[in-house]
Amino acid sequence: MSDDSFMREVEDELRSDKVSNFWNKYKYFVIGGAIAIVVGTAGYRFWESYSEKIAGASGDQFLSAIELSNEGKHDEAIAQLEILGKEGVGQYPALAKLRLASEYAKKDEPQKALEAFDAIANDTSFDESMRNVARLRAGLLLVDNGTYDEVSDRLQSMSETGNAFRHSAREGLGLSAWKAKKYDDALVWFQAIADDQGSPNGVRARAGVMLQLLAGKGFSQAESEAG
After folding, report:
1. pLDDT tier at 12 (50, 70, 90 boundaries)?
2. Has residue 123 been placed in a domain?
3. How many domains is the chain partitioned into structurally?
4. Cβ distance 182 to 211 under 8 Å?
5. Could you say which of 103, 122, 145 is where a domain stops?
6. pLDDT winner (highest mean) among 23-32, 120-129, 204-213
7. Same structural domain, 141 and 178
8. Which of 213, 225, 223 is nearest to 179 (CA)?
9. Containing domain of residue 135, as a range?
10. 125 belongs to a structural domain
């Protein structure tokens, strides 16, 4: 149907009493509905544009905080990240809190960093992958600042076959065991890295060095099996 034909049909209908009566009775409802549609659509477009703008602003703020950190301005970076953690949109508040914990670690404030990482790891409102990153960071932080049991509490579940973070988790557990002079445990973790075909080359190489050191102390897979 052409536009001209369509318009003629509309005009013919509007000339009839039936349509006129309908219009007189319901015109305010129709006008109100039309306005609601227009306002609703405009509102949605505005909100969509506003959200994109705010998300863009959050992204800019996050990158700015990273730049401040790279320049050694950790206090300024922390102040900016704290605001972003409260007022940002999308995933930026979570990213800000994760980065904030890292800033505490850089400032040599391990207890604050640990509390921040643990808070993220235990917060079910965060994405699971982000919680795992926080859990891993907390465990690795404790290699230098905690006990083997504390490291194990955070990294043991991440060391299992198939876990994407297993290589770093095993290395952290192995180093913590070594520091605690739990050489049997250290052997288990470093050997697990060596036996895993998926272990990255760097992690595998470091595990090989640690296995040699363990062998020098009388701890090796062969001796363990013989025992």
Report:
1. low
2. yes
3. 3
4. no
5. 145
6. 204-213
7. no
8. 213
9. 73-145
10. yes
Q: Are residues 227 and 166 in the same domain?
A: yes
Residue 181 and residue 141 in one domain: no
Question: For the chain, what is the mean pLDDT?
Answer: 79
Q: How long is the chain?
A: 227
Q: Could you tell me the two tokens for 19?
A: 């349509």
Dihedral sign from CA coordinates of 29, 30, 35, 41: positive
Taking the whole predicted model, whether its pTM rises above 0.70 is answered as no
**Neighbouring C-alpha atoms within 13 Å toward the C-beta of 162:** 1
Is residue 7 assigned to a domain?
Answer: no
Residue 152 lies in a domain: no
pLDDT, mean of residues 153-179: 94
Return the HEC string of the chain.
CCHHHHHHHHHHHHHCHHHHHHHHHHHHHHHHHHHHHHHHHHHHHHHHHHHHHHHHHHHHHHHHHHHHHHCCCHHHHHHHHHHHHHHCCCCHHHHHHHHHHHHHHHCCCHHHHHHHHHHHHCCCCCCHHHHHHHHHHHHHHHHHHCCHHHHHHHHHHHHCCCCCCHHHHHHHHHHHHHHCCCHHHHHHHHHHHHHCCCCCHHHHHHHHHHHHHHHHCCCCHHHHHHC
